[in-house]
Amino acid sequence: MAHGVTVSRNLFGTTFYTLTGLHGLHVILGLVGLAALLVLARMGDFRRGPTAAIDCVSMYWHFVDVVWVLLFGIIYLGAIL
């Protein structure tokens, strides 16, 4: 912001802050999911093996990984090519 990059200034600023905000939101949601798994583990819910909760949190993180790798490739590497 000290250099004049804001959401309303131009397409770069809008894209930068939107993607940064969405990334932060997804990381926070993932951490909430991991915290829920920690609580379930402390309560002994996983003694009989993996549950649907583990599968859901795992699929969420894998989805976020794939989306962000694709976005990185398109936005940053695509700009170089």
Helices and strands in order, then pairings?
Layout: H1 11-42, H2 52-80
Helix pairs in contact: 1-2
Question: Would you kindly provide a written description of the structure presented here, covering whatever features stand out?
Answer:
The chain has a domain at 28-80. 75% of the residues lie in helices and 0% in strands. It contains two helices and no strands. It has helices at 11-42, 52-80. The chain is mostly helical and 81 residues long. It is elongated.
Main sheet? none
Roughly what percent helix? over 70%
Output the radius of gyration.
18 Å
- Please, what is the oligomeric state? single chain
Average pLDDT, all residues:
87
Give the termini distance in whole angstroms. 28 Å
Would you kindly provide a brief summary of this structure?
This protein has 81 residues and is an all-alpha fold.
Defining key terms:
mainly alpha; 81 residues; 2 helices
